[in-house]
Design brief:
mainly beta, 4-stranded mixed beta sheet, about 15% helix
């Protein structure tokens, strides 16, 4: 249903996910954090979507608002994830926009077999590229050829 990404600076991260990728903010709220004492850990959570609907995939960006006064935050609020990917209409355009916005290129647009995407080997091609978001998380863009 969604992926949650811990971020160090919400406004900087919104510049990437909202302004470069084009996700739409559907909720921006201060919430109690998961795990432990909900009054001890607060987060700013911004929910972003591509499409409307209860079954549509979304992303939650989390920025921990309280840190040192309460000790180590719950593990669920740590920064980052391994990587995640978006289907896009034009990988090259998205990649160039991200790089022009100052985001580090990890993998320039590259074409590969679509077997890793659940298609029979040799039946299709995918163009993929990877950039880093403001906290250094790899974000991949995929396009069917």
């Amino acid at each position: 249903s969604h992926v949650a990404v811990g971020v160090s600076d919400m406004d900087t991260s919104l510049g990437f996910y909202r302004d470069i990728i084009g996700l739409r903010v559907t909720l921006d709220a201060e919430e109690g954090a998961f795990g432990g004492d909900r009054s001890a850990y607060r987060r700013r959570a911004v929910y972003l979507r591509v499409d409307e609907g209860t079954d549509e995939f979304f992303i939650v960006l989390d920025q921990l608002l309280d840190t040192a006064p309460h000790g180590t935050p719950p593990r669920i609020l740590q920064l980052g994830t391994h990587h995640f990917s978006f289907w896009v209409d034009d990988v090259t355009e998205m990649f160039e926009r991200a790089v022009a916005g100052g985001h580090r290129a990890i993998l320039r647009p590259t074409e590969a077999d679509a077997a890793a995407y659940g298609e029979p080997a040799g039946s299709g091609r995918i163009i993929t590229a990877i950039v880093k978001d403001p906290d250094g998380n790899p974000v991949q863009f995929d396009q069917r050829v």
